[in-house]
Write a structure and sequence with these properties.
The chain has about 325 residues and is an alpha/beta fold. The protein has helices at about 15-30, 35-45, 45-60, 65-90, 170-175, and strands at about 95-105, 110-115, 120-125, 130-140, 145-150, 155-160, 180-185, 195-200, 205, 215-220, 225-230, 235-240, 245-250, 255-260, 270, 275-280, 285-290, 300-305, 315. It folds into two domains: about 15-90, no CATH class; about 95-315. Helices cover about 20% and strands about 35% of the residues.
């Protein structure tokens, strides 16, 4: 009886060559040999990788040679883009722009601010001009839109937006220069404010110690966040949804506080003066509720909810 032997197709060399090329490129980027402009040029040609994958599926499985040729040509094109791309105009750079927005107090008795950043470091603090509701010193690479509505209760929004024409643009100056890219947001400290922040990629430093806070909602992207809360002049709630990066939360002394934490992937470090009333530790995080004594009977309270992503939560 004869035994039939199945024949299997060749394993393509496409992916090993691509992975080697990616590894070499990554090393050159980390070593500073490849510039930000070269990386930007490479990013403009990402559809080539999809074409190469399709060619490998069609022809690369039939022989080692076909897969190797497709992989080598793909890596060669991408390396060529990094070398010659900037000089060929493959980098539609987004220009660095600076602008100061000032919103006058006028007849406002309270206000809300919606703040959405992109690739900047965002600093929020109390302002010194009683006649200004908000003063925003901005650095940005795409477009800034702002709105100001209402009279006695004002609704202000400041956000960086991506226009369709700049969707594939790349802020090369972020990688190649040491120019500051901070947002400085000064808030009127005397009027109650409800603050909503959506951060992109970058640090977030929010010092509200001297602010009359009515509420805070923070949706964090990628980067470390430091938030200082004030002693309440009215009861307020704080909601923090973390992305990737640690959170440092500074609570006021002698305040009535109720805090719930779902730390996600990362631990939570809470001081002993804030007793834990329920919760448990998990392998990669912690869930718990902490509450000061007498919270239920306090006239003015702070309620904090933290949904952690990837990173630790430090409470001071």
């Amino acid at each position: 009886m004869s035994q039939k032997r199945g024949q299997s197709g060749y394993r393509s060399l496409f992916w090993p060559i691509i992975l080697i090329g990616v590894g070499i490129t990554w090393l050159l980027i980390n070593a500073g040999i490849i510039s930000g402009a070269s990386v930007a040029a490479l990013l403009q040609l990402w559809p080539i990788l999809l074409i190469a994958i399709g060619l490998d599926l069609l022809f690369g499985r039939s022989s080692f040679v076909n897969g190797a040729i497709i992989g080598i040509i793909t890596v060669g094109i991408l390396i060529g883009a990094m070398i010659f791309g900037p000089s060929l105009g493959l980098v539609p750079t987004a220009e660095r722009q600076e602008e100061t927005l000032t919103f006058a107090t006028n007849n406002a008795e309270s206000y809300e601010l919606y703040l959405k950043s992109g690739l900047e470091i965002v600093n929020v603090d109390a302002g010194t001009d009683d006649g200004a509701l908000i003063v925003a010193d901005l650095v940005y690479y795409d477009e800034i839109s702002s709105t100001d509505e209402g009279s006695s209760h004002r609704n202000v929004a400041i956000q960086e937006t991506n226009s369709p024409a700049k969707f594939f643009s790349f802020p090369v100056s972020i990688m190649d220069t040491d120019e500051p890219r901070d947002w400085q947001i000064a808030l009127n400290p005397n009027l109650p404010v409800t603050l909503t922040i959506e951060s992109g990629v970058g640090e977030l430093n929010v010092n509200l110690a001297d602010i009359h806070l009515a509420g805070l909602n923070a949706d964090l992207g990628v980067g470390e966040a430091t938030i200082v809360l004030p002693m309440p002049q009215q009861s307020y709630a704080v909601s923090i949804d973390s992305g990737v990066g640690g959170i440092i939360l500074d609570l006021p002394d002698d305040a009535a506080i109720h805090m719930e934490i779902n730390a996600g992937v990362g631990g939570a470090n809470v001081p002993d003066w804030l007793p834990q009333v329920s919760g448990e530790d998990h392998v990669v995080g912690v869930d718990g509720i902490w509450e000061t004594e007498g919270f239920a009977n306090a006239d003015m309270t702070i309620t904090v909810t933290i949904n952690g992503g990837v990173g630790s939560v430090e409470v001071h």
